[in-house]
Amino acid sequence: MNADKIREKDTAVLEKDATDMHESMFRIKFQMSLGQTDGLKKYREMKKDRARILTVLRERAK
Hints:
Largest sheet: none
Order of helices and strands: HHH
Shape: elongated
Strand content: under 5%
Low-confidence stretches: none
Oligomer: single chain
Number of strands: 0
Radius of gyration: 13 Å
Structural class: mainly alpha
Helix content: over 70%
Number of helices: 3
Distance between the termini: 23 Å
Number of domains: 1
């Protein structure tokens, strides 16, 4: 996800997206611990997207 697209979204939507991504990342990490390594690329992308979302939310909080 692009940072410009993230900045266009509403704050409430971004907070919901961050929460959903956190839950999805937990599920993917759990699956990887069971030996299903398919989700490593997806996990890394979600981690970066979540970091971008949290950065934008912190910018808006100032």
